[in-house]
Amino acid sequence: MASGGIRLEIQNLDEVKRLIEQLGPRAKAVLPQAVEGGAGVLRDKMAAKAPGDGIGVELDGATAYVGPTKEKFYYVFFETGTSTHKVEPGAKKALKFGEAFAARAFPGGIAPRPFMRPAVDEGKDAVAVKIGEVIQAALE
C-alpha cells in the first residue's frame, strides 16, 4: 500500500517512548496491538470520506501506514488535485475516445477534494483514545 498515504509525525515521541518504558514490558509488548487499533480507527474515518472503497492499513511493528491501497493509488489525486496536462499515445499513433481518435488530449485538472487530512484532523483524538484503551486493558 502506502503509494500515497499521509505521513504522521508524533510530537514528543521520545516522551511517549519513555512513558511506555516506565509502564514496563507488558505495555511495550502490547504496543503493536495498540497501534493496530488506532490505525483501524483512522482507516474507518478515512474510508468514510474517501471517494470509494480501497483504504487500507499496513502494519510494520509499532508503525502503521493508513491510506489508499495500491489499486487505488489515484485517490492521492483527489487529495491534492491535478492540473491540466497533455496525454499522448504510447506505441500507437492515436488515442481513442469512444469512436473518435486524437493525436493528443489535454484533460482538465481536478480541484482538490481532501479526505485523508480531514480524517486525520477529525480522528486524532479518537485514535489516541483507542491506543490508550488497548494499553490500559493490557495493564489491568
Beta-strand fraction estimate:
5-15%
Shape: elongated
Overall average pLDDT: 85
Cα-atom radius of gyration = 21 Å
Tell me about the biggest sheet?
2 strands, antiparallel
User: How are the strands of the largest sheet arranged?
Assistant: 1-2
**How many β-strand runs?**
4
H/E element order: HHEEHEEH
Assembly classification: single chain
* Low-pLDDT ranges: none
Helical fraction: 40-55%
Q: How does the helix and strand content classify structurally?
A: alpha+beta
Distance between the termini: 35 Å
How many helix segments?
Answer: 4
TL;DR?
The protein is of the alpha+beta class and 140 residues long. 47% of the residues lie in helices and 13% in strands.
Architecture overview:
This protein has 140 residues and is α+β, with helices and mostly antiparallel strands. 47% of the residues lie in helices and 13% in strands. The model has no long low-confidence stretch (mean pLDDT 85).
List keywords for this structure.
two-stranded antiparallel ribbon; 140 residues; 4 helices; elongated; alpha+beta
What is the strand and helix layout of this fold?
Blueprint: H1 13-23, H2 25-49, E1 55-60, E2 63-68, H3 75-80, E3 95-97, E4 100-102, H4 116-139
Antiparallel strand pairs: 1-2, 3-4
Helix pairs in contact: 2-4
